[in-house]
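Dear colleagues,

As part of the handover before I leave the project, I'm documenting each prediction I ran so the next person doesn't have to rerun anything. This entry is a single chain, and its sequence is reproduced below.
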Amino acid sequence: MFCNRCGTETQAGFVVCPKCGRRIGDPVSGVAQSRLERHLRTLGTLWMAIGGLFLIPAAGLMVFGRSLHFMMHEQEPWPGVWEVLLTLASGTLLILAAGGVCVGLGLMQRAPWARTAAIIMGVLALFHPPLGTALGVYSLWVLLADEGGNEYQYLAGAE
């Protein structure tokens, strides 16, 4: 007898696979999904949505930084300083937006690197209340559920 999930050979009396823990002989086990499988698509969608939300202030800061020169009319003591600072801030937001979208796509495609990147970004997101904190907690809850990422590695290699 073999496990339907990982292919490990098991003895006839086993109820669960000794390697992956999937129930053997249970007709529902082929249909039932683990917590990680159920939440990966939702987590990927949320990361892409947060990445998209970061695009709004990034675009606003870019437009404001470019038009600041026309609004100030040489009234500032150091011309161009505010433009540079606003451009740096908008560039940082663009990098965060691109990171969120890339991590979201990676999780949805079950890319091997996406779990590690999402955990790192989830920890960083904890410091951005309220949406970032919620997304960070949800990311860590989903991705740190299995020991050492074995289940995610299996899902990433299965496709």
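The chain has two domains: 1-32, 35-158. Residues 26-31 have pLDDT under 50 and may be disordered.

All the best with the project,
I.
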